[in-house]
């Protein structure tokens, strides 16, 4: 009986960890309200309906 309980606990732990790792893998690059670009570019514009403001940040990865 104790062997069955241990097997069930291990099986549940494996399934739960597989779910958590797959969820983290699927959502690894997800960010909210962010536009990510690669390279260099500049363009000034004025909207005819609203004036947009924004901020820029640089993330350096090695």
What would you note in describing this structure?
- 40% of the residues lie in helices and 0% in strands.
- It has one helix spanning 2-26.
- The model has no long low-confidence stretch (mean pLDDT 80).
- With 62 residues, the chain is mainly α.
Largest sheet features: none
- What's the gyration radius in Å? 23 Å
- From the N-terminal CA to the C-terminal CA, the straight-line distance is 52 Å
Number of helices: 1
What is the ordering of alpha helices and beta strands? H
What percentage of the residues does DSSP assign to strands (E)?
Answer: under 5%
Number of β-strand runs: 0
Provide mean pLDDT, rounded.
80
Uncertain regions spanning at least 5 consecutive residues: none
Q: Bin the helical content.
A: 40-55%
Class by SSE composition: mainly alpha
Molecular shape? elongated
Strand and helix layout:
Blueprint: H1 2-26
Question: How would you briefly describe this protein structure?
Answer:
The protein is mostly helical and 62 residues long.
List keywords for this structure.
62 residues, mainly alpha, 1 helix, 40% helix
């Amino acid at each position: 009986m104790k062997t069955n309980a241990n097997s069930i606990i291990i099986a549940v732990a494996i399934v739960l960890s597989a779910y958590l790792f797959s969820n983290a893998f699927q959502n690894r690059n997800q960010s909210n309200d962010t536009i990510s670009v690669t390279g260099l570019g500049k363009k000034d514009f004025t909207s005819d309906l609203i004036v947009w403001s924004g901020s820029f940040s640089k993330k350096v990865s090695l």
